[in-house]
Amino acid sequence: MKFIRTMFTVMAAVATLLAFQPQVADAVDTSALGKRIVVDISQQKVYAYSGTQLVWSTWANISGIRRGTFRIQDKIPIARSFALGWRLPNWMGIYYAGGLENGFHGPAYTARGKRNMTSLGCVVMPENAAATLYRWASLGTRVVVQW
Question: How far apart are CA 21 and CA 30, in angstroms?
């Protein structure tokens, strides 16, 4: 059982490059000012705000994520899971759990090409929703994860 728990912890941490250099936030991107993403664990929803106005929302599979306030710290068009080698489209990292990163992404694609919506510490959204949020959010965009 401990091995399974350890494996799930390792699987939850993601984000290595495939062939792209990530965009990394050294400072807040000015286009991020006024933008905010709210992740509501209890509702399994993601909300995007510009100022006080809700501009977009979607359902998501959210499990094992840390609550708090973060910022989008990197964006990778297609990241790869360290533990499983799965491809993670529209990756946006928000915090590190140990030496590994958690964040937003679309459905994972296994080594066999099968889609997987399982959340192991990330916010997993439908493919189109993940692409929309990826385009909308800037490096430095504030992310609030709440219950």
Answer: 21
Listed in sequence order, the DSSP H helices in the chain are 2-12, 127-136
Q: DSSP H helical segments within 15-81, as ranges?
A: none
**Closest by alpha carbon to 74, among 140, 143, 145?**
140
Q: 2-146: what fold?
A: L,D-transpeptidase catalytic domain-like (2.40.440)
Strand ranges (E), the chain: 16-17, 23-24, 35-40, 45-50, 53-59, 61-62, 68-71, 74-80, 87-97, 100-105, 108-109, 115-116, 123-124, 142-146
pLDDT digits (tens, 9 = 90+) for 68-86: 999 999 999 999 987 788 9
Name the residue ranges covered by the structural domains of the chain. 2-146
pLDDT at 77 (0 to 100): 98
